[in-house]
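Q: Hi! First time doing this. I have a protein sequence and I read that you can turn it into a structure. Is that right? Here it is:
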Amino acid sequence: MPDINSSRKKEPSSALTVPTKNELRWMARRGMLELDLLLNDFIDNKFNDLSSDEKKMLASLLQQEDPVLQSWFFAGDKPVDDLFYDIVISIKNNSQHRS
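A: Yes, that's right. Below is the predicted 3D structure, encoded as structure tokens:
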């Protein structure tokens, strides 16, 4: 079972290029339909509203394992790393407003 508090990459590097919408959509392809729908809906609806740093943070978030993301979005677990907290809340809020 993966450690839901660990991450492969914790914060976007300033050296990272800002990902495009299509790059983020590709990164958001998951092994779980629920995550696919949740993440792609957020990208489709909020991409233009995100700052460059938020787009980098989203790209970093999308590097997390599916069980970790599932725990944050569907089980109510909070990312221990505050760097992901705001983007997780934004994604959840987008989903709630669209339901």
